[in-house]
Amino acid sequence: SSSASMPTRNIFPASSSCATTKACACSFPTPSRRGRCRRNSLISPTAAPSFAAITCNVTVTSISTVYSPTVATDNVSTGSYTISCTRLATDANSLAWSLAANNGLQSGGGNNRVNLAGNRYAYDLYIDPAHTTKWQGGTRFTGTLNFGASLSASVTGSFDLVVFGSQAVQPAGTYTDTVTVTLRNTANNSTLDTSP
């Protein structure tokens, strides 16, 4: 068996391998690099002046796991994202948002993949516990952030990272991937933040 450290969304290793993946903001590489995000202001005077001063950032937890490719059962790890926004008193008190994830740095065969010197293991991110809907492409988390009378608000959600069982054994080690997530204002499709 192996030990994998799937830090920032780390992904697994082989029977004797290790993997690291940082998902969402999914940068599965460095464990120390927790989903850090840049803060971007949504300034769209013509398209959506009511959201002009709203500022948001998104963060994603780190995931570490030990993976053995000789085990038939899928390796499942749960991560979470947090969206935090602030507004001015003159702005609208709600914000419709969507959170998308790309396919990482070395996807192939319809799956995301972690990599170590050209050796890879397949995995995917899912938005539902039943693992029927992948978090990628046009499939996104969506919601409405309600500020009420407050000038700040946040929302948190979860996702699953699934490393598929019974994969071909690769050299032991730490396997990594980086998945980028993008937070958008669905009212005008403008980008509010990206991570990492």
Short description:
With 196 residues, this protein is mostly beta strands. The chain is 0% helix and 40% strand. The chain has no helices and 13 strands.
Tag the structure with descriptive keywords:
single chain, 196 residues, mainly beta, 6-stranded antiparallel β-sheet, 4-stranded antiparallel β-sheet, 40% strand
Explain what you see:
By secondary structure, the protein is mainly beta. It has strands spanning 18-21, 40-41, 55-60, 63-65, 75-86, 94-101, 112-116, 119-126, 141-146, 152-163, 174-175, 181-185, 190-195. The protein has no helices and 13 strands.
Task: Please report which band the strand proportion falls in: under 5%, 5-15%, 15-25%, 25-35%, 35-45% or over 45%.
Answer: 35-45%
Q: Report strand order across the widest sheet.
A: 2-3-5-10-8-7
Global Rg: 18 Å
User: Which secondary-structure class do the elements indicate?
Assistant: mainly beta
* Poorly predicted regions: 1-51
Query: Considering DSSP H and I runs of 4 or more, what fraction of the residues is helical?
Result: under 10%
Query: Biggest sheet, open or closed, and with what strands and sense?
Result: 6 strands, antiparallel
Number of strands: 13
